[in-house]
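Study the following:
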Amino acid sequence: MRYIKLCLLLSLLLTVSCQQHKERKRPLLLASIHPYELLLKQLAGSDFDVQCIIPANASPHTWSPNPSDLKAIMEASFILSNGLGLEAHLENSFATRAFVRVQAAKLIKDAIPHPVDEQHEADGDHQHLGQDPHLWTSPRLMIRLVTAVANELSRRFPNSALVFRQNAETMRRELDEAAELIKTEREAYLEPGLITYHNTFYYFTKEFDIKYLGWVQFSPGKEPRPKDLAGLGETIQAHKVKAVFIEPQMDRKAGEVLAKEFGLKLLLLDSLGSDAKAKTIAELILTNWDSMKEAFTEK
């Protein structure tokens, strides 16, 4: 019944949006999440209207669309989503617009490493997980994605292909410079390791040889069990962890409990860029790197 209602709503929105689509002065490019909104804005330039579907202060794992979001999806000329289950609540809506939607995970599938559960790695228990959806935390993956999205946009909007190509070159250079800076600065720290609120930064930690010691929420939006927190406590003591990270999109209570119990700093990581200070994807990555450094011990 819910699916039927959604189909009826989408049909109505499609009828209304056809006329509005004709009236648009600039093609609408939609990003499912804010990091991809940053990517599209820098890549496409001012000739396109770039908007984000999921607010940056909301968790993509638990957020659900409202009618205005569905309307925007129906009007979009291009949609960049992440895939890998990140936008589960949007899949039915995206299915009606498959011809304008591309998934980051499919565009760069050959470059995505398969995660290993770092929390069990030290004990020799290599537990394989499903593919991590948080692709945008890795400069290397974003360099690949910029090229792939520029090619997609050029195919769909050939009159702007030169702009896409030039902007993509700038973005790749910025991301490469960010990666080199992080690589250089990382050498100043003694066996850096992280405990984050949920497992958002696998690709980042793998790229820069940072130990992913664990995360507070094993399932987004679901509070950890006492035994989970006890296990994290053992990790904190064994690795002399200095800080635990919270996220603005999540309830911080469990992080506060850990920080109080073990005398840790409570720091912020915001992979989605909810404070809107970062204007490019490279700036967003560097902003989170600056936060991470506060948790590390210098050599």
Summary: The chain is about 45% helix and 10% strand. Residues 117-129 have pLDDT under 50 and may be disordered. Residues 2-175 form a domain with the Rossmann fold fold (CATH 3.40.50.1980).
